[in-house]
Design a protein that fits this description.
244 residues, alpha/beta, 9 helices
Length: 244
């Protein structure tokens, strides 16, 4: 019997991260459901996985806190024997024109999106087993230049840069490192604060004329985390329905 693969997924209590955790569990992986503050929601994800016959545990960690993230990886190793797949889905988004953007909010967003991604990637680089995969979430806004998204896009631009470097630093380890950059996706985070006209406008942007779903993004991540994605490495995969 082959060794069960083990995934650590941050931001897994809701939205895209939740769906990623469920899809990786359906793929047969044991999953650590990482979360920042939504303990009940994280436990519900664990219960859904275990009810379907999978293995999972919830672990609270601020991704920017290196001690908490190290403890999360420790928990994965102690409970399931190691770490094969790491998905950093935790993120923070705030929107406003650059001229008006609050600098405290900028610092908070960069702490989660840049430092948080770095801390998770650092643990992944130290611990992921041969044959593993590291996947981080970026955003298609890096290339779309939507007004009001400047600070958020800047933080995710940094995410893409470190991802591409890490792929090359892991030469010889048989570990892939990629970023998935969703377009507009119907999650609680995305829909918050937007009126119907704005949502409808964004839904019409891709040639497929709809918003993405968490399932759309999770299936791309599951592909990169599985045997079919082994030859994709050091890439930013823009999962956005063709929006330009």
């Amino acid at each position: 019997m082959s060794q069960q693969r083990v995934a650590v997924v941050t931001g897994a209590s809701r939205g895209i991260g939740r769906q990623i955790a469920l899809d990786l569990a359906a793929q047969g992986q044991a999953v650590v459901v990482g979360y920042a503050g939504r303990a009940t929601a994280a436990e519900e994800v664990v219960q859904e996985i275990t009810a379907a016959g999978g293995r999972a545990l919830a672990f609270q960690a601020d991704v920017a806190d290196e001690k908490a993230v190290a403890a999360m990886f420790d928990a994965a190793e102690q409970a399931f024997g190691g770490v094969d797949v790491v998905v950093n889905s935790a993120g923070r988004m705030a929107l406003a024109p650059i001229a008006e953007f609050d600098l405290d909010e900028l610092d908070a967003m960069h702490r989660t999106n840049i430092r948080g991604t770095f801390v998770v990637a650092q643990q992944a680089a130290r611990r992921v087993r041969s044959g593993g995969a590291v996947i981080v979430l970026s955003t298609s806004v890096v290339g779309l230049q939507f007004p009001n998204y400047g600070p958020y896009a800047a933080s995710k631009g940094a995410v893409e840069a470190m991802t591409l470097v890490l792929a090359r630093e892991l030469r010889g380890r048989d570990i892939t490192v990629n970023a998935v950059a969703p377009g507009p996706t119907a999650t609680e985070l995305f829909l918050e604060g937007k009126d119907e006209a704005t949502i409808d406008h964004l839904a019409k942007q891709p040639p497929l004329e709809r918003l993405g779903t968490p399932q759309d993004i999770a299936q791309v991540v599951a592909f990169l985390a599985g045997p079919g994605g082994r030859w994709v490495n050091g890439q930013v995969l823009r999962a956005n329905g063709g929006i330009v």
